[in-house]
Amino acid sequence: MFVEAGHFALALALGLSLIQFVVPLWGARANDPVLMSVGRATGLAVFACIAFAFMALTIAYVTSDFSVVNVVENSHSAKPLIYKISGVWGNHEGSMLLWVLILALCGAVVALARNSIPLRLQANTLAIQGAITIAFLLFILLTSNPFTRIVPAPAEGQDLNPLLQDPGLAIHPPLLYIGYVGFSISFAFAIAALIDGRIDAVWARIVRPWTLGAWAFLTLGIAMGSYWAYYELGWGGWWFWDPVENASLMPWLAGTALLHSTVVMEKRDALKVWTILLAILTFSLSLLGTFLVRSGVLTSVHSFAVDPERGTFILVILILFIGGSLALFAWRAPLLKQGGLFAPVSRESALVVNNLFLATACATVLIGTLYPLALEVVTGEKISVGPPFFNFTFLPLIIPLLLLLPLGQTLAWKRGNFLGTAQRLYMVFGISLVVTMAIFAFEHGGPVAAPLGIGLGVYLVLGSFNEIVARSWSRGTPLAVAWHKAANLPRSTWGAVLAHAGVGLTVIGIAATAWGVEGLATVRVGDRIKAGDYEARLERVVPRMEANYRDDVAVFTIFRQGRELGSLESMKRLYVTRGMPTTEAGIMTVGLGQVYVSLGEVAADGSVGVRLYHKPLVLLIWIGSLVMALGGGVSLMDRRLRIGAPVRAKMVPAAAVPAE
Amino acid sequence: MRFVLTLLTALVFAVPAWAVQPDEVLKDPALEKRAREISAGLRCLVCQNQSIDDSDAQLAKDLRLLVRERLVAGDTDRQVEDFLVQRYGEFVLLKPTFSAHNMLLWLAPVLVLVMGGIGAYAALRRRPQVPETLSEEEQKALEALLKQDRSAS
């Protein structure tokens, strides 16, 4: 009776999170440390309950318990074990359960940080976290209960959507959700600061690891989703400006801005009000993303769970939290004192410009995503806003930002010198220019975008590492000393350098897509198809049976300029239970590029429609994202985030300090 | 209701994503290139957020053939698009037109950037600036320190 116990645990978690919301908040107002510390115990208990509920559902999936509606609709006894487990969150109810599980996990980690967070801030933060948990637990229990039983139980399940039967499903949603939900902590801290009317560099230092962690996971989640779409959907695109992709890009853009403004706040005690607003907006966009995906208001390839009643419920949550927090912001923000002066030309100002561009890019994506809806509601006209619009508006906003990036990174805090900074980057400018010209000369007459974009990417990579060189080496320094100095630079410096270099790598990968070539032909066994320097020869087509699907496997030999590189398999797959066909592209990695073969119709006479692509340097798009996330991770290991945080004296309420 | 929805989703996904078929390709490579470019900007009306160039739905195929037919008949790119808009409405264009009801959409990025820029500038102007030079007292103190330093070495 694990299933009922799981259902009960969810209800219990709801009751406990009510306590987590009310008691610590009351304790903070009444200045009672005992009441305030209730938040810690409940935070852990709520997590335990939700983890139990999640485990109960997982057990139902693993044992193929077809008396549970959710399992019937999304599982099959012949499904491989990994998809039985990942199938838990491959559907609406289960994915919401994963959402609150991660939410509760974040709350538990805050609750465990006994000494590094002032008690009052911790109590208020956990209370806000409790409020979010209440809303989403209510949503699950009232509209999306994963534990509903069915009588009589069918003998077999309906199987999981074939597109989701992929290792991508095991990794992509958890990463993405840790990112989305991780921002709830930055949000809760921001609201706690507003309630208290008190915010300072200590606040920034406490919040920064959360923002960094959430950002790194969101980066990985988006990159993973992009790679998944690339190999699964079968036409080799890696970003579609699909509303659901936009829903994850918006919090990422806002989170990136938040990360940078928090640095200013931590180092220079400036941009406080803006940082608080960004923390609120970032999580609001995460909520909006959840709403867009879960309500299915936007038709898109991802909305495999659609229900208007749920949409309304999430909309109410959305209005309550976003409206409430913005109202609180309008009321309390004027109380926050501004500090930290800086000149118009300084690192601070550069970061303000960074925030301006990122916020505008984010607003552009938001408006582009919601405008068709708004227009249809207001005038009844139906329009589409697709990739051409986003490429046309987004790129002009991002390119100036990228051009300014190495300059901003080199500028001094407080007061900088623009010309002096530019001088320090002359080698970087020079090399990137030479690279660009060399590529132009080499490709003679190819697409213009590729050399320019690659030049920009090289400039970003070199510009980032220039900071390491400038800080550890000057003319005459022995190399060993410079090496030692570089190794001892703060981890956060290395983190920033890596993250920015990662952006450069991604830019190079994107620019090189302009060199991609494709070939298209109907071939028989023995025939060749050509794309640029590459050729594929169809060797044979063989059927293959697996537990829950059937493949037509086409084996190709790949040649480059006539020389054999090896062979790959490209498949057409039919999932038996749902009768749904999918394409499994055959991919061969050559250096940083890929040869990509996807199959069309297999005709009765044995001829096959084949698409062959060569995508040079395409892997850099995702390698760059990995390096960005790695930068976030390295920055998290910075000394100042690990130790040296103020330790609270025993039982002296921090609340005795008057609000600023 | 649930059954209908499942069926709908199944139908939408029942298409292996595999777009332009070899037999559709035009003989003239220049014309084919134009056809591909136009197709990438046209929405497959029955799909979810896919261009007809990417989609394998029957309607997308019909539209691809239609685009090629018009091109072979000698239409300009613009005429082909206008023809499709006339038939299917503006919904078919993935890049919205620059007409009055889309003005807000197109101007939004510029408006946000300019207003944000003015806002940031005003907010930074309102606060006291870092003085450009040292005050007389600071200058004196500095000189005294430097003198001390020099005499020490």
Short description:
By secondary structure, chain A is of the alpha+beta class.
Note the overall shape of chain B: elongated
Q: How big a fraction of the residues of chain B is strand?
A: under 5%
Sequence of strands across the biggest β-sheet of chain A: 2-3-4-5-6
CATH topology of the largest domain in chain B: Helicase, Ruva Protein, domain 3
Shape of chain A: globular
Number of helices of chain A: 20
Biggest protein-protein contact in the assembly: A-B, 68 and 48 residues
Itemize the secondary structure elements and their pairings.
The complex is a heterodimer of chains A (660) and B (153).
Chain A (H helix, E strand, L loop, with lengths): L1 H29 L2 H30 L6 H6 L6 H6 L5 H21 L6 H25 L23 H30 L4 H32 L10 H26 L3 H24 L12 H25 L14 H33 L7 H24 L7 H7 L1 H18 L5 H24 L6 H9 L3 H22 L4 E7 L4 E4 L2 E12 L3 E12 L2 E13 L4 E5 L1 E5 L2 E10 L5 E8 L3 H18 L2 H4 L18
Antiparallel strand pairs in A: 1-9, 2-3, 3-4, 4-5, 5-6, 7-8, 8-9
Helix pairs in contact in A: 1-2, 1-6, 2-5, 2-6, 5-6, 5-7, 6-7, 6-11, 7-8, 7-10, 8-9, 8-19, 9-10, 9-12, 10-11, 12-13, 13-16, 15-16, 16-17, 16-18, 18-19
Chain B lengths: L1 H12 L15 H12 L17 H15 L4 H12 L14 H24 L9 H17 L1
